[in-house]
Amino acid sequence: SLMIGVCIAQGSTLFVKQAAAMNLKISDNFKIPPASMASLSAFGTIISVPIYDRIIVPILRKVRGNERGISILGRIGIGLIFLVILMVVAALVENMRLRMPGHETMSVMWLIPQYLILGIGNSFYLIALQEYFYDEVPDSMRSVGMALYLSVIGIGFFLSSFLIIIVDHVTAGKNGKDWIAEDVNSSRLDKYYSILSVINALNLCLFLFLAKRYT
Asked: Alpha helix (H) ranges present in the chain?
């Protein structure tokens, strides 16, 4: 579950760095603050949670006969699928941005899909993880369960920084273009996001392997 924290960290770090290098103009007199784009992930969560609870769950209750609609582990698994999609979309958008002619700047609106996917994913894995750690511990350890849930985010942010340091060290100076340079326009964040998509895909496979054997 630590990769969840890693991907959430991108929304408030490298995604913002991308936004700062894009065309932020909405009109001649107004520019979108780059960091404010992160609010779109919250919007995605706010919209997807009621849709899931009020529409999807009742339908699945009838079809599957499960009170939750989808099991807790199933909901986490769907969230992990969203993480793979998130990093693939982020890599494609960044690759498009880097291919833009020098005199043109891509609109920041191209980042909307990845922020919304991040928010929708939050409604699956974060809520399911909270339920999982709360339900799967004895009553006397409920506070420990919640601490484990929160540690997923905290440790995931540290792991994100650690991965960036490793990638920066390995790619520094190669072909004259670091993957994660100070200037985002001379970086190759698309390749970094591609690596994260592969890691998330492998993580999903590991999760499925363990979930099928979980009792």
From this structure: 2-12, 14-20, 39-51, 57-64, 72-98, 112-135, 142-171, 189-212
The rounded radius of gyration (Å) of the Cα atoms in the chain is: 19
Question: Which residues lie closer than 8 Å to 19 by C-beta, 6 or more apart?
Answer: 32, 34, 35, 37, 108, 111
Identify the pLDDT of residue 176: 57
CA distances from 61 to 20, 71, 110, 120, 122 (A): 44, 11, 36, 21, 22
For 27, the enclosing helix (H) or strand (E) is strand 25-27
- Indicate the angle between helix axes 72-98 and 112-135, nearest 10 degrees: 160
Say if residues 148 and 134 touch (Cβ distance below 8 Å).
no
Instruction: Answer yes or no: are the C-beta atoms of 18 and 98 closer than 8 Å.
Output: no
Task: Say if residues 11 and 118 touch (Cβ distance below 8 Å).
Answer: yes
Give how far the C-alpha of residue 152 lies from the chain's centroid of Cα atoms, to the nearest Å: 13
Per the listing, tokens 């991308």 go with 18
> Each residue of 105-127: pLDDT tens digit?
899 999 999 999 999 999 999 88
Q: What is the pLDDT of residue 169?
A: 87
Q: At residue 118, what are phi and psi to the nearest 5 degrees?
A: -60, -45
SS3 172: coil
Q: Phi and psi dihedrals of 46, rounded to 5? A: -60, -40
Q: Is 199 helix (H, G, I), strand (E, B) or coil?
A: helix
pTM, two decimal places: 0.90
